[in-house]
């Protein structure tokens, strides 16, 4: 397994979900860097002003201020940011959401399972997959 260290940008307003992802990464003994934003507005400010570009974005759909789908549309119109792979990490299995996200240009859509061990397995698979990819380093 390729152990390339990823810069993961988690955009999630639920503190428990943020803790869950941190716990999963720790449990899997991965050294990825986790950057957090609690909504689309904060995420856009970070992406535009920090000079740091993540390797991958995990995006929740249901957020205050700018929801996930609107955030996605803004990112995909940005000449620099549009190449960052975005994986939706949500509880929504609404077919319309799934379709809209893929039409907008996501890299994946993961529905958060209820059982923690299933969640850890999904995160492990996703991170292993993206660790093996050739990602654009800006």
Walk me through the structure:
By secondary structure, this protein is of the alpha/beta class. The chain has one domain (7-132): Rossmann fold (3-Layer(aba) Sandwich), CATH 3.40.50.2300. Helix content is 43%, strand content 17%. It has 5 helices and 5 strands, in the order βαβαβαβαβα. It has helices at residues 15-27, 40-49, 68-76, 95-104, 116-132, and strands at residues 7-11, 33-37, 56-59, 86-90, 108-111. It has a 5-stranded parallel sheet with strand order 2-1-3-4-5. α1 links the parallel β1 (7-11) and β2. The longest helix is centred in the C-terminal third of the chain and has 17 residues, at 116-132. The protein is globular and about 35 Å long. The model has no long low-confidence stretch (mean pLDDT 91).
Structural class: alpha/beta
- Give me the side-by-side strand order of the main sheet: 2-1-3-4-5
Number of strands: 5
* CATH fold label: Rossmann fold
At the fourth CATH level, what is the homologous superfamily? Answer: Response regulator
Biggest beta sheet summary: 5 strands, parallel
Question: What is the CATH class designation?
Answer: Alpha Beta
Name the CATH architecture: 3-Layer(aba) Sandwich
What is the H/E string?
Answer: EHEHEHEHEH
Helix content: 40-55%
Between the first and last Cα atoms, what is the distance in angstroms?
24 Å
Percent strand: 15-25%
Shape by Cα distribution: globular
**Total helical segments:** 5
Low-confidence stretches: none
The Cα radius of gyration reads: 14 Å
Mean pLDDT: 91
């Amino acid at each position: 397994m390729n152990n390339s260290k990823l810069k993961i940008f988690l955009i999630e307003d639920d503190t428990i979900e943020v803790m869950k992802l941190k716990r999963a990464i720790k449990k899997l003994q991965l050294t990825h860097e986790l950057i957090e934003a609690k909504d689309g507005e904060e995420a856009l400010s970070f992406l535009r002003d920090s000079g740091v570009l993540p390797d991958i974005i995990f995006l929740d759909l249901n957020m205050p201020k700018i929801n996930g789908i609107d955030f996605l549309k803004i990112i995909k119109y940005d000449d620099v940011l549009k190449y960052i792979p975005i994986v939706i990490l949500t509880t929504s299995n609404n077919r319309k959401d799934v379709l809209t996200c893929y039409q907008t240009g996501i890299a994946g859509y993961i529905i958060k399972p209820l059982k923690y061990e299933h969640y850890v397995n999904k995160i492990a698979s996703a991170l292993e997959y993206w660790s093996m990819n050739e990602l654009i380093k800006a």
